C-alpha cells in the first residue's frame, strides 16, 4: 500500500490518488462496520451497521470496477482522516463502560464517516467530469455517493428516533 505522495502533476494522477484512498477507506470500513454491528447494543443501530457493511462490500467492488475501467490494478493508499477516526474509536470504547453512551459514540462516528465519504465521492465525481471520464467511471462513484447519503440520512433519523429517546433522556443531565 502506498503511504506517500511523491508528485502529482495532473487531474488524472489526483483522481487516481483519491480513488486509491477511497478504496482503502471502503475496505477498512467493512471490518469497522462489522465490529460496530457486533458491539452496538441498540438493535436498530446494530442492524443499520450490518446492512451498511454489506452495502460497503458492494461499494468496494464498484471501486474495483472503476480501477478496471481505467485499466489499472486496484490500489490502496492511506487515508489519514479515516486512520484518525479509527485511532479514536478503540480509545473511546475502552474509556466508556455504559452501553448506551458507547452506542452514541458509534452513531456519531457513523455520521462523521458518512459525511467524509460523501465529500470524497463528490470530489471524485467532479474530477472525473473535468477529465471527461464516461459513465463507466462516473456511475459507480455516483451510486456509492447515493448510498453514503442514504446511510447518513438513516443515522441522522436514528438520532431523533423514538427508540433512542430513552437513551437521550438517561444520558442528558436534568
Automatic annotation (TrEMBL):
Gene3D superfamilies attached to this UniProt entry: 1.20.1260.10
Pfam families linked: DUF892 (PF05974)
SUPFAM superfamilies: Ferritin-like
InterPro entries for the chain: DUF892_YciF-like, Ferritin-like, Ferritin-like_SF, YciF
Protein's name in the database: Uncharacterized protein
Organism (species): Natronorubrum bangense JCM 10635
Amino acid at each position: 500500500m502506498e503511504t506517500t505522495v511523491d508528485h502529482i502533476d495532473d487531474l488524472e494522477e489526483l483522481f487516481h490518488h483519491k480513488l486509491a484512498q477511497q478504496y482503502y477507506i471502503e475496505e477498512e470500513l467493512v471490518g469497522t462496520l462489522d465490529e460496530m454491528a457486533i458491539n452496538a447494543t441498540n438493535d436498530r443501530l446494530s442492524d443499520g451497521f450490518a446492512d451498511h457493511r454489506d452495502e460497503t462490500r458492494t461499494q468496494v467492488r464498484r471501486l474495483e470496477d472503476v480501477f478496471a475501467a481505467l485499466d489499472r490494478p486496484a490500489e490502496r493508499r492511506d487515508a489519514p482522516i479515516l486512520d484518525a477516526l479509527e485511532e479514536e474509536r478503540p480509545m473511546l470504547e475502552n474509556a466508556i463502560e455504559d452501553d448506551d453512551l458507547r452506542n452514541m459514540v458509534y452513531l456519531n462516528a457513523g455520521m462523521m464517516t458518512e459525511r467524509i465519504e460523501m465529500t470524497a465521492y463528490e470530489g471524485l465525481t467532479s474530477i472525473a467530469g473535468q477529465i471527461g471520464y464516461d459513465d463507466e467511471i462516473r456511475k459507480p462513484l455516483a451510486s456509492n455517493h447515493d448510498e453514503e447519503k442514504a446511510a447518513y440520512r438513516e443515522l441522522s433519523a436514528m438520532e431523533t428516533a423514538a427508540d433512542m429517546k430513552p437513551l437521550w433522556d438517561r444520558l442528558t443531565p436534568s
